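Possible regression after last week's pipeline update?

I re-ran a chain I had predicted before the update to compare outputs. Posting the input and the new output here so someone can diff against the archived version. Not blocking, just want to make sure nothing changed silently.
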Amino acid sequence: MRNVILLFAALFFCTHPAFAGDPGQDFWTLVEIRKENWEIDDQATKIATDLRADKLSAAQAETLWRILHRKSEKLRDRSEPFESGEQPEVAKEVTKMLRLQVTRLKGLIEAAQVESKSGVEAARPLWQKQLRSYKAYQAQEQKVLDLMNWVEENP
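New output (post-update):
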């Protein structure tokens, strides 16, 4: 009898992996995706800082941003399937944030291309556009963080 009870308990926990108070595996995977995106964001910002400090050429910055752009696209692709999972609201906001990041990095690449071919002055409008793009991305990033904090506190 005891073995039957243990078997049913094991089956229950296998089919219901989230304990009370846990938002689920989808949520924690999205948190990991967000953390990886933060690392990409930090690297993109450092590249921009190094470019302005003349530690990198525009061509070097472009190459590095292309690498980050591909990583962001992969993160976006990883987050999209979760839009129909346990936490669809969170997944949709994370995917939106990643789309903005991909767009931002694409714009940085374009600005670096213009700068390397035609100089800083020719690229200035593109850099200004990127500042607006970055602000939109940051607003979405904050929205994701607030939503994740709320979900974690109110599972």
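Follow-up from reviewer: compared with the archived run. The first helix runs from residue 2 to 15. Marking as no regression found.
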